[in-house]
Input
Amino acid sequence: MSFEFVKKLPAPEQVKADYPVSPELAAVKEQRDREIRDIFEGRSDRFLLIIGPCSADNEEAVVDYTVRLAGAAEKVKDKILVIPRVYTNKPRTTGKGYKGMLHQPDPEKKPDLLAGLIAIRKMHIDVIRETGLTPADEMLYPENHRFMDDVLSYVAVGARSVEDQLHRMVASGVDIPVGMKNPTSGDFSVMLNSIVAAQSPQTFSYRSWQVHTDGNPLTHAVLRGAVNKHGNNIPNYHYEDLELLADKYASSGLANPAVIIDANHSNSGKKYLEQIRITKEVLHSRRHSEPIRKLVKGMMIESYIEPGAQSVGEGVYGKSITDPCLGWKQSEKLILEMADLL
Output
């Protein structure tokens, strides 16, 4: 046996009991979940904006950022519903490097997953308490979702996870929207198959239990660009891409057709300033085509306090230690411009 069993983690119920959500914050989440559901089910024309750091590495800076974000969200609330991106699990292509606050509550210290689980739960709760905004996170580890299911209003399944059976099945039992990203190959059929699986009832093994789910009708597509065999980025946010996806959705029989456009990653080639142009192009496509307007429900944007990125240990407050992000001034300006373009 090559595994070293370091520490047994407590059950989700224990962590929730130790770090509870107050009735007041639970009511905030219930109201926000209802508003987000209305967008996906077509009862609201508001546009979703999932925005925040590439990875949430420091609670003080993340809460500071989301307090600023809440101020901007209030200004555009009639047209845009803002969901703070508080991503605490960082997928790594090679398996090396900083894997997020779940693994390392302090990026300069050794991994400690129990301390990480506690730190990210506290951070999500503090974001809600300080801002009234309920966050999004990536479901990198499906078995951990139950530690956070009472504090999240949106979940993303990443490009490297979307073909995984357990991710799809756990998504089928989640009661908030789950965004299924296209795989790194860009294949729309893989993404749509994952949505079919997640919208369908499933029976499977989860955390040592046989479980049954009813299916999640709020599961939807996320376009994040692709990479070809030569390592070149292939954007998939253009008008023709959205037309193609609209056609595929129309013949799929899926509930609540929807797509969120990820403006960074392979869509921008990780050139973070391109997110501004990409967002405006997507909004233009929505204005030009009614099927695209109905399908495109929102944007994902990577943004933090300071623009760009830094290495672990440089210590610049509010600057990404993973992928480069828009700075706050650029982000606030873009949010207000988006509202004018909707």
